[in-house]
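If you are new to this repository, start here. Below is one unmodified record pulled from the training split, so you can see the exact layout before writing a loader.
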Amino acid sequence: MLDPSKPEDALEIMKRTQCGEADGVAAVYHWSGKIYSRRPGEPDRHLFNGEGMNVRQCVRVEDPKRGAGYRLVSREIMLYLDPKTNEVVRMWDNPFTGEKVEVMQIANDPVNSPPNYPYSADGKPYKLPNIRQEGDWMFMPLEVPLFYHNVLQGDYQDYEGGKYHAMEIFDFTMRASEILDKRNKTAYPAISWVRISGWMPWMKMRARDGIIIFNAMGNKLKRYDALPKILKDEIAANYPTYNVPPPGDDLRKNATTWTEFKKWIDAKRAADLKK
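And here is the target side for that same chain:
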């Protein structure tokens, strides 16, 4: 059995949680949930349902001092669905502004992680974050505070604000008997995901107060075909590369909703100029 207190085993547990069993073996996570608005002085609103997926792989990396580790490469999609019909929303009547806006689905490619090793550059052993075991259940909550340059702001955000400020929370639940057993090449955890952030840029909320809250649950699937039909249909029609992970040597800069929106709006503006 793997021992979470050993750096090499702890890293292997995280690798089994995050992705697949070997280089080139894809893993698929799926999640489903709801999206709410929160504004001062008014009740929260159920704006959308959401269906999302991430397709990924882990590739082996080696360092003479830090040991053998892995790097994760992935791409992800989340669809905004009508809360009553569960159909993909293409145009949205913004209840806060009275304006009809075009919806940009979440489609980020790539979403990669830096290499992870059993030991850090200064020799500190790798430790699993916040993991605990209760009987045969293992729980691993991960909070990811985000605060970085917003590509939709100007050159003076360090003085005037305008940073991208959010938090994503990933809570993994798994069977200890599955993930710790070395005879198993991988494991299939359940996951809950919460994201708290400012308005999506396509909503055209400008400087209005408020935040949006994403809340979803899901799990790692045993095959791509197990995804809901609505996701597979949308991927086949509009995002055909999202049925497989990026190549293991992918060194592109990570995409976010904000960087993808900038590309999206810049392309629309360029097309309008040609008319």
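Two things worth knowing about this chain: The mean pLDDT is 94. The first helix runs from residue 7 to 18.
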